[in-house]
Specification:
- With about 425 residues, the chain is α/β, with parallel strands linked by helices.
- The chain is built from 12 helices and 18 strands.
- Strand 11 and strand 12 form a beta hairpin.
- The longest helix is centred in the last third of the chain and has 15 residues.
- Bound molecules: iron/sulfur cluster (SF4).
- The site of iron/sulfur cluster has 10 residues, from loops.
Length: about 425
Amino acid sequence: MSKKLNPKELYRLPWSLTDNGISWLEVTTKCNLHCKGCYRDQTKDGHKTLEKIQEDLDVFKAKRNSDCMSIAGGDPLVHPQIVEIVKMIKDMGWKPILNTNGIALTHELLEQLKEAGVFGFTFHVDLSQGRPDAPASAKTEGDLNFIREKYARMLANVGGNIACSFNQTVTEKTLNQLPEVYEWALRNVDIVHSIVYILYREPGMCPQFDNFVNGKKIVMPYENTDWGDGKILKAQDAVDMIRTIEPTYEPSAYLNGTCDPDSMKWLLGVRVGQGDKTYGFVSPKFQKIVQHVFHIVKGKWLSYASPSVSVAGKITMILFSLVDKEMRKTLVNFLKSNITTPWNLFRKVSFQGFMVIQPVDFLEDGRQNMCDGCPDMTVHNGKLYWSCRLEEIKEYGTFLTTYPRQSEKTDSDVIQTSEEETQRAQ
Ligand code: SF4
């Protein structure tokens, strides 16, 4: 294991339920793919009407301040009114970010989305999807880099300064392939602004728990996928793997868990580099200054930065060097490294994000450790819910509770509260 992650050494993003970098709008349950282990039931609900979407946006406006609106599903690009939806979101003051598998993206649609004000795309591309554009010979995540590159180039070619991110689910089987996408992103730093590794979870990975709805035990209508085989990965596993090819990888900001303060549920490292040459990673202090200055100026916590800012690395390095010793080191690395290649001093220096998301974990006692300050809260029937567990609300009207599995209860298992203890509790 590489150096252990320590929350005390990182900046805890100041995101909360009511004031957050991101919110999550689901516009449809329909999708043009069937990824293994997808948490949304495509047979329910279908496309939301524009009126329903307006209602959801009004709930967000009333209950939650945020910089970006992730537009999700299903796949949002299969919604026939996606261009109008992007415009509605932009007009209401959010940065619209489309979370899509990209399959339905054409040049014509991209032009229209740009016109409507799309701020960025997060493309989900991985081997779990059974993509029609993936060759049958594709065996590892790196074999899909040509698909990622196609989307990154589409955005770069259409212009308009559109942010380009990629996410992928990671399981124990694909953990060792994580560097293939990391290295590809370095080579394409000018057009790829961030990579998000989502550590895969599915209920069948935790057979040691029983599920209850309002105190009643239920058997989940769920089958394990072969995608989820293996151990439950933690952020440290992904960081260790990144460090096999980028030993200096150093995250700077995180969100902790709702039950376990030491868990890293969202972990963000931002690299400063030119091509595959890394000069350093931004510090927790840098993150803190950026978040707070943005909040003072814009009244929101920052999530996605504009690509034009991402490539303004040199001026940012110089300014932050005045107040941040880590950035001074990065600037020195940049200058030293270019002594023999002085023409590189005139090339762009970019910021590039590498993030790890560690979704719900079950603690030994059955508590569910969610992301504290969840950025992906969504609206359902006028209320805010974790989007990763919305299916529980749709199915049961409440979230499931979990307890360590026990053999059939006998009378002796029932915990008796003595009269004395009851009185003390009152
Ligand atoms: S709690 Fe669930 S929906 Fe929220 S950020 Fe974590 S994984 Fe995403």
